[in-house]
Amino acid sequence: MTAEPMSATAASETGGQVTIMFENDQVSVPRRPGETLLESARRAGMTPPFSCEAGNCGTCMAKLLEGTATMRVNDALDDDEVADGYVLTCQAIPDCDLVTVSYDED
Ligand code: FES
After folding, report:
1. In order of start, what are the domains of the chain with their CATH numbers?
2. Ligand 1 within 6 A of 77 CB?
């Protein structure tokens, strides 16, 4: 018997899930590589607030309840807000397979 490389099966598992909570509603969509949380929310049929879509205004801000995401640009949130889990959803791309973000946290 020969051993199979571990990576052979792991590569096919590109799944993951993004869950968005907005106005007391909750929808999950399959994670897509490189998609921002705002784009995922729209794909889920939600209409969360946004304005500049450039990381400048903070209108699209939401709070991560599960998982982590990296913002391409952040010219709106201060360090304390980031430390509390807030992200600019127009700029935030999930770093892990399971992410939950809520627009209802204020
Ligand atoms: S829409 Fe302006 S920072 Fe995201």
Report:
1. 16-102 (3.10.20.30)
2. no
